[in-house]
Amino acid sequence: MSRNLIDTVIIPAWPAPARVRAIQTTRLGGMGIAPYGTLNLGMHVGDDAQVVANNRLLLDLLLPSAPVWLKQVHGTVVADADGAVGIPVADASIARRSGAVCGVMTADCLPVLLCDVEGRVVAAVHAGWRGLSAGVIEAAVVKMGVAPDQLMAWLGPAISQSGFEVGDEVRAEFVAADPMAAAAFIAGKSGKYLADIYALARQRLNALGITKIYGGDRCTYSEPERFFSYRRDGVTGRQGSFIWLE
After folding, report:
1. Burial class (CB in 10 A: 0-12, 13-18, 19+), 217
2. Could you give the C-alpha distances from 67 to 84, 171, 175, 207, 218, in angstroms and in order?
3. Residue 140 to residues 6, 31, 144, 150, 215, Cα–Cα distance (Å)
């Protein structure tokens, strides 16, 4: 292990209830070589499977149980981590049982962690632009079964606006759903736009009635020493965002 893993993870800074625990991994603290060094958690990106398995075992030392890993497809399906079997095809999961760990993997897409103010339910959401536009956050909130004004959100590391170039069709999709989304796009080159995925997520959360929103201040694209970024590197690993109830 290149360094003590606990020293390399990010602990979300948000006023979650005491029994809500969460960590955000970086690319530091595990094992592996370029372009996957050193804490790649993704089995699907071409890295050596045994190295990834070893990294996941290191991660397990920080968690109460192995997380429910998902096969993420940029959709809106929400898995139940309390009783999940195998690897669900889903882009979010929720848990109400103590010790059940929800998690998502990202490398530019936005990870969103959710909990209620009473500490009864948690969720992890993989919100790339496709899932965000399709309503993956909304689907997770519905499945949590808690009034939105009783929820809070933490936005993990994702690509910032300066590095997130998209086509006009992406902008049009968001604006068609909410004209206010236009403010999250600035004109780029050759008819492209630069999208603020953090702003788009905040708009979706606010529209649901969730106003307690934290994080959203790290850029995977511009911090190569700390985060994996698919847009920057193409072939790369995945970091993870995890949340559970003690």
Report:
1. exposed
2. 10, 34, 35, 30, 24
3. 29, 33, 6, 14, 19
Q: What is the full DSSP assignment across 186-201? A: EE-STT-EEE-HHHHH
Residue 131 and residue 24: Cα distance in Å, rounded?
Answer: 20
The token pair at 119 is 């500490």
Buried b (16+ CB within 10 A) or exposed e, 17-37: beebbbbbbbbbbbbbeeebb
Strands (E), 117-171: 122-127, 151-155, 165-166
Q: What pTM, to 2 d.p., does this model score?
A: 0.96
What are the structural domains of the chain? 5-159+213-245 (3.60.140.10)
Give pLDDT tens digits for 74-83: 999 999 999 9
State phi, psi for 181 to the nearest 5 degrees: -65, -20
Model pLDDT for residues 221-234, shown as the tens digit of each residue: 999 999 999 999 99
Q: Give 67-87 as a DSSP string.
A: -B--B--SS--EEETTS--S-
Q: Are 65 and 246 in contact (CB under 8 A)?
A: no
